[in-house]
Input
Amino acid sequence: MNFQIGDFVSRKSYHNDVLFRIVGFRDGLVLLQGVNVRLSADSLKEDLHLEEKANMDEEDEPIIRKNVLMMHLDRDNYFYIPGKILHIDGDPDYLDRCMNFYKEMGVPANGICIKENEVPKHILELLKEYRPDILVITGHDAYYANKNDKEDIHNYQNSMNFVSSIKEARKFNKGQDSLIIIAGACQSNYEELIKAGANFASSPKRINIHALDPAIIASSLALSNKNESINLLETIEKTKYGSNGIGGLITNGTMYVGFPR
Output
């Protein structure tokens, strides 16, 4: 079969468990990026199965609806000023989906698409321009299981890029309550991202995370009271895979509450 860039496929050797989009070809391999999970992979052509085009709206709708319903704000008497989000994403399609999620949640957000290895070069200028309360640094990642060492950050596709980006951001703002950082993608080196200065990171169990998971955490923080600590376990459990996919620190919210409306 002649595969083309943009085709939707799955891998037979993995029991067709993840839906991918073909993004390129190199050295006889097909380069893949997850459609609903933030995973990069490659494959031989003969291992691929052509799939029907995915409907992203159908995938995201129940997640958006669930999160909207979980937001209980007294809009009769009070007014609210949510925290501002700067979302930097290595994948333009994921960025669009996350920006739609922020819109549905009523959260102010700016989205920038930059490849993961380029983010450390631009993060300071973006922070100075947008002055966010919450910074999301995400895209694609993968742990190379054949390396057999989960602690070595060089055994990950983009974890080192995420770490470098976090460290650059912390040069701009060291305070983990004044600039909340959410970083990582599928199978990222969670421990190193947290040590670098992230408030939340993936992936404690080196599993895949959903495209919207970083945006879910960011929105929860943007819509949580600035003077109160979030419910850490409840916030993490809003994501698709819970604490296996994302972990973090007890952090104050970023939303101001005013009266009267």
Observations:
- The two ends are 61 Å apart (CA to CA).
- The chain has two domains: 8-51, 56-258.
- The chain has a mean pLDDT of 92.
- The helical segments are 56-70, 92-105, 119-130, 159-172, 190-196, 213-222, 232-236.
